[in-house]
Design a protein that fits this description.
By secondary structure, the chain is an alpha+beta fold. It has a domain of 86 residues: 2-Layer Sandwich (Alpha-Beta Plaits). 44% of the residues lie in helices and 26% in strands. It is built from eight helices and 14 strands. Strands 3-2-1-4-8-9 form a six-stranded mixed β-sheet, with helices on one face. Strands 10, 11, 12, 13 and 14 form a five-stranded antiparallel β-sheet that branches.
Length: 379
């Protein structure tokens, strides 16, 4: 009971300590980021991601600079004849940006995208990229080498399922659109399209390079969080060490006491089992000393004279189940002498007639019925 209480207190204390440390970590991170310029702080925290989308119109090329959540930040329109990569650099420089910190995308017509939705078991989450790609190759006419594809996934509410929204576009569509802008395919991070339908409908978006820009946004906070966690855990480890050791010692003491009690129970069970085993051995030994049917048959054949034969031989136990007895019926020319012959046997005892001797008119012999007890020690 004391061990359970100590364990509960320890877990409760650890939960409270975890909440306090999380709050301290967030405060420390805010103070730490405040030491840097805004752009540097945004980079360290993985915020402030920028994307530049190029939209080809019939009379111009639109440059749309987007922030987090694809929020519009700035835009510019350039005539098709005057568009070049230099126009991109000019727009970015006006906002103190460069291409290294901006994901470049090209907008395609919505009809250039194929959309499908699939539902997968939650167990596929660890290998979701491979599962979605295999499902696309198996269930659609597309070849993976001929298309670019991307997806978004979310846990289905109230079910162990993953809802996947996948977009597919042909590589030739992307190459043609990128070439028309005078860009290289490797410089383009994604292609998208204008959203259609309701505002809740997902917009077509296909990343051309796996995990473009997203990995660094996740790695930086993860590294910072791990570093802070290591420092904070190192500070509290010394204070928790004694408490943990004492709780372990209390647990061990209670476990030893419980083990002793269980050992006594096991010892008692073993003693009972040995007693039962000894009883079984005695019963088996006693049964081994009791003659069987073959022994009775052999002795009966040896004792009965040639002028007598049996029509029935039955071996059974007496009502008190301490002895066995044999009952036999048959025909003989001298049935009255059979009782004495059986009494002379070392196997039979207390032989007697069970019914009056009668003459069988068909066989011309006396019909008799005998019974005798079996001597257990005679086997």
């Amino acid at each position: 009971m004391a061990s359970h209480t100590a364990g509960s207190l320890l877990k409760s204390w650890e939960a409270r300590a975890s909440d306090v440390l999380a709050s301290l970590g967030q405060s420390w991170l805010r103070e730490f980021l405040a030491l840097f310029p805004r752009r540097m702080a945004d980079w360290l925290a993985g915020r402030g991601a920028r994307t530049l989308v190029l939209v080809t119109r019939h009379d111009a090329v639109d440059l749309q600079l987007l922030g987090d959540g694809r929020r519009p930040l700035a835009s510019a329109r350039v005539p098709p004849a005057g568009f070049s990569p230099a126009a991109i650099d000019a727009l970015l420089r006006s906002h103190r940006l460069d291409r290294a910190g901006v994901a470049l995308g090209v907008r395609l017509p919505a009809e250039k995208f194929f959309h499908r939705s699939i539902v997968l078991p939650v167990e596929t989450l660890r290998s979701l990229d491979a599962v979605v790609a295999q499902d696309l190759a198996r269930k659609t006419p597309f070849r993976l080498d001929d298309v670019f594809h991307d997806y978004t996934a979310r846990r289905a509410p109230g079910a162990d399922r993953i809802e996947v929204c996948q977009w597919v576009t042909r590589r030739e569509f992307v190459r043609d659109a990128v070439a028309a802008l005078g860009l290289e395919l490797r410089a383009v991070a994604f292609v998208d399209a204008e959203p259609e339908g309701s505002a809740d409908a997902p917009s077509p978006l296909v990343r051309l390079h796996a995990k473009h820009g997203g990995q660094s946004r996740l790695v930086r906070p993860a590294l910072i969080g791990l570093t802070l966690s290591a420092v904070l855990l190192g500070l509290v480890a010394a204070g928790l060490d004694y408490w943990r050791q004492q709780a372990i010692l209390d647990d061990l003491e209670n476990e030893v006491a419980a083990a002793k009690s269980k050992a006594q129970q096991v010892r008692t069970a073993i003693d009972k089992l040995q007693q039962q085993q000894a009883l079984v051995l005695r019963i088996r030994s006693r049964k081994a000393e009791t003659p069987g049917l073959l022994d009775v048959w052999e002795e009966t054949t040896r004792r009965l004279p040639a002028h007598s034969w049996l029509t029935e031989l039955r071996l059974s136990e007496t009502p008190d189940r301490h002895e066995q007895q044999v009952a036999m019926t048959g025909l003989s020319t001298e049935a009255s002498t059979l009782v004495g012959l059986l009494d002379q046997s070392a196997l039979f005892a207390d032989a007697s007639l069970t019914a009056p001797v009668t003459l069988d008119p068909v066989e011309g012999r006396e019909r008799f019925g005998l019974q005798a007890k079996i001597r257990a020690q005679a086997r």
